[in-house]
């Protein structure tokens, strides 16, 4: 375990999913794979989730997006104002842009799909508990697009930004947030060498010379 991953105590997690078999499997997997996680409750509906989370006060809620009585966005709507310290990580079979955008706008800190491995899910839970935003591959672009188009803000329209590929934007966003190359590679499921190639390409396209200038450039364009 690296220094950045060390925890004083296990991260407390609450599971929300309308499939009991999935909740049972997720609990077993999370707790057997790592001692960094302790599941403190679970729920199969919006009403059960609201009551259970209010009672358990977990650090992280693993939240299903689609449930018969309103889904993850409804849980967020009811609880975010009351429990701002609780972090919500969406966990869904869906990787549709509209689903990702809806729960992120509602207040989720990240979004991963159910194809994620047990160890990667543990890592995602720990990271969001530490303040990071975590997304499965290719979903980060949906979030960038959503924030670029959010009400009250001007859409991004920049000739230099338009030169960057979606993956280059993903790398730039993480770089500007302070991620090391190795962390970017792990987050985007690419090699460190590929990260270096993308950064070199972004530097060339933007005609900037270092990471600090890139961070400022990304911040000015609301990519961070």
From TrEMBL:
The keyword Phosphoprotein applies. One of its GO terms (biological process) is phosphorelay signal transduction system. GO terms for molecular function: DNA binding. Residues 12-129 form the Response regulatory domain. Gene3D superfamilies: 3.40.50.2300. The modification 4-aspartylphosphate is found at residue 64. Residues 157-222 form the HTH luxR-type domain. Pfam families: GerE (PF00196), Response_reg (PF00072). Keywords: DNA-binding, Phosphoprotein. SUPFAM superfamilies: C-terminal effector domain of the bipartite response regulators (SSF46894), CheY-like (SSF52172). The keyword Protein biosynthesis does not apply. This is DNA-binding response regulator.
